Amino acid sequence: MELIRLSYRSVRKPTTSDDIVINGIVMPSIRRNAREDVTGCLWCGPTRFFQTLEGPREGVERIYADIERDPRHTDVELLELRPIDIRSFERFSMKLIRARESDEIGRLVDATRPPGAADAAPEPRRRTAMQAIIDILIGAPAERMP
Ligand SMILES: Cc1cc2nc3c(=O)[nH]c(=O)nc-3n(C[C@H](O)[C@H](O)[C@H](O)COP(=O)(O)O)c2cc1C
Prior knowledge:
- The chain has 146 residues and is α+β, with helices and mostly antiparallel strands.
- The chain has one domain: 2-Layer Sandwich (Alpha-Beta Plaits).
- It is 39% helix and 27% strand.
- The protein has helices at residues 18-36, 57-69, 104-111, 123-139, and strands at residues 3-12, 39-44, 48-56, 73-83, 95-98.
- Strands 4-1-3-2-5 form a five-stranded mixed sheet, with helices on both faces.
- The radius of gyration is 14 Å and the shape is globular.
- Flavin mononucleotide binds next to α1, β2, β3 and α2.
């Protein structure tokens, strides 16, 4: 079975409150991701999202197709989709990380360009930058769920 990792960023709508993020997005995601054998992490900033999904290709792509159409955010940009050997968030159907002040992840997410963008870094550097974001997310404390 092919495992993939998919990461994207998007713009959080001002109407998408913290309550909507937790109860409307993350709680149902935990259930659906578990059904699809998908794990991952959602970084939630005041105005942006960054998310990594990992698991079997079909499940990840099915979920991402719904995410792309979700009206609670806009400007969904795929940053990376690649095969992986092992998962980074195997303990989490969806790990939620909320931005702290002077959040390093926010700056890294801002600096990332989608593959093929005119000002994108060369592929090896892009890949290293993506891994740097994911490594920080792995180490960051998860938000406690209600
Ligand atoms: C930023 C963001 C992240 C999301 N992440 C997930 C996710 O990891 N898994 C998931 O099933 N749905 C996620 N969703 C919700 C989907 O867009 C969609 O609402 C949901 O999958 C619909 O599921 P349903 O058809 O079972 O109701 C996310 C939505 C947003 C806005």
